[in-house]
Known about the structure:
By secondary structure, the protein is α/β, with parallel strands linked by helices. The chain is about 25% helix and about 20% strand. It contains 4 helices and 5 strands. The protein is globular and about 35 Å long.
Amino acid sequence: MGAIYARYIETAEYWISSATRAQQTFHGLSAHLPKGQVIITDALYTFDFQSLVEFLKTYSGTSDELTLIAHNPAIHSLISRIASYSGKFPTCAFAKLTYPVEHWRAIQQDDGNLQVLITPKSGRIL
């Protein structure tokens, strides 16, 4: 899956939940992904989408693209509310969202656009 996901990632920053499973997921994918800075944080070890929104809004770096490896239902809820997505988001699914905002702190509900969605089982790409 990493080779497929890599087609849609241009990031220089990978933000990974401190959970062992999230780190194992990243390790399994990383050989196929573009090289970048890896940051492991407790902030992504959450099941609450609002915590993810706050994480994004308080991001103080300069990157305009971040890759997050976090947990459901938080990621699913984030995609549902930010990009108005109503489908399923299973474990190891990949979504690429874009936001028409100049600064991360300006992210709002329904602002995002779901550009790509890949699920491991179907391999579907939107």
